[in-house]
Amino acid sequence: MKVAIIQGRCTDNATENRQQLFHKIKEAAQHGAQLVVLQELHDTPYFCQTENVDNFDLAVSIPGPVTDLYAQVAREARVVIVTSLFERRAAGLYHNTAVVFESDGSIAGTYRKMHIPDDPAYYEKFYFTPGDLGFRPVQTSVGRLGVQVCWDQWYPEGARLMALQGADLLIYPTAIGYAADDTPEEQQRQRQAWQLVQRGHAVANGLPVITVNRTGHEPDPSGQTAGIEFWGTSFVCGPQGELLYEAPEHEEANAIIDINLERSEQVRRWWPFLRDRRIEAFGGLMQRYIDGTTSPA
């Protein structure tokens, strides 16, 4: 399967950002892409650097006029598209939601971000209600897509649950970058850990992983911090964690990567982790923490 990733910068004009994406999606399709994966919250700058109620105006209804635009592009280009949108579910109820469009323009499925961070410059708990759709792959014409979003990518449980439900790929739209006050050494440790943990999901589940991050500097609207330097480095790896593609840190990148889905079958025969899991001994995973007041049953 030919997979396209689009790593980019965002302006303050959502309409212009979408038009740029539409052009790049259609161009990728012309070069044979069957699946196009976009970065997290790709229509706007990363607005979660501050807590501002006016930013809720950026949210869109699903379905709605914005999803109609992406549906039209998917239909015209004949590609499956993984998008990442700020969903207005109701007044005062918002989600960080991935919407997967089938190549005929229909919505194949959605995923609402489950793990919501709350860190300096990443004030997502102010904006997003944790997802309530669980970890369920989305069935498409190119396979079952195990889509999660950004902070979810650090948690092996979500990747495993997607794999246990027949996902063919693990996909993570992302927005993550460097804190200006960290040393260059610490910045690189964080970036490498981010990639390493996801390559570990590929190995542990015998599945390819597609991760698309944004790039470029985005200032803090409040002026209280130096903003975020998004570290790019979007990547695709195979079912043994082998890197098939890695984008640069500080540049936009559009790439088409060939993924051999049949390799997952062979790798799982060599390394049958799903067969050998001692599921009867994993009850403790349902605990927040195991200490003298809880049972590891």
Number of helices: 6
Rg from alpha-carbon coordinates: 19 Å
Overall geometry: globular
Task: Please provide the ordered H/E string of secondary-structure elements.
Answer: EHEHEEEEEEEHEEHEEEEEEHH
What's the end-to-end separation, in Å? 42 Å
**Structural class by helix and strand composition:** alpha+beta
CATH architecture: 4-Layer Sandwich
Total number of domains: 1
Low-confidence spans? none
CATH C-level class is Alpha Beta
What fraction, in percent, of the residue positions are helical?
10-25%
Q: CATH topology, what is it called?
A: Nitrilase/N-carbamoyl-D-aminoacid amidohydrolase
- Main sheet attributes: strand count, strand direction, barrel closure: 6 strands, mixed
- E-strand count: 17
Q: Name the CATH homologous superfamily.
A: Carbon-nitrogen hydrolase
Q: Taking strands numbered 1, 2, ... along the chain, how are they ordered across the largest sheet? A: 5-4-3-2-1-17
Q: How confident is the prediction overall: mean pLDDT?
A: 96
